[in-house]
Amino acid sequence: MSSPTPSAEPTIRFATEEGPLPPHFPHTSPPRSIKLSTPPLIPLSPPLTPSTDVPTILALIHELAAYEHASSSVHATPASLLATLTFPSAPSAGYAKTLLIFPPSPASPTPQTSPSPASNPPTSPSPASPPCAGLALFFTNYSTWRAAPGIYLEDLFVQPAWRGRGYGTALLRALARETRRIGGQRLEWSVLRWNEPSLKFYDGLGAVRMEEWVGMRVEGEGLGRLAGDGEGEDGREGGRVEGGSS
Description:
This protein is an alpha+beta fold and 246 residues long. It contains 5 helices and 5 strands.
């Protein structure tokens, strides 16, 4: 008699800060912040071993930036991610949450190229623990017309060795459920115009291209000028927001 075939479903969970999970974080049920009103399509569970999520997140961010030809634009560090991301142990702190997806264990990808650092976490006493296959990093936004919150997906990335298995779709479905859980009405993100494979993939999921909108951004020195760090073009200092600090 052949042995049972392990489940082919991936596991998705919220990222945690480095170190063991806090005592109040249960190991027997999903994090409170990800409980859903409807049954999930994929298993959602907390980690059972000490977390190395922050360096894994950073490694995946670098891989995504390399894919988008923007490696020099990444200034994130483990310390800055730890200080600014939201984790289950402190749900009111930080500015963005991260969902990580893991293949079923035991599993071993057969990539055509050498595995990336994120696919090979440091050796631990539990060698059967699967590597992280990808992430979805997101934060909440707000629609004034609908008077409702929503979710903005900042980064979605699945490592090449794990593509073609539905992991990107699984992450988006988890985000759609999270959007519904918070009472949100929109899940949105941006895509580079040249990334036609991704555009077609999102089209197939029912996403609508917002062609009439143009993204705008102010950063670096331009942000400083706009904030009034120096004098404006007309030689006068910028005004202050009523109620703001002087």
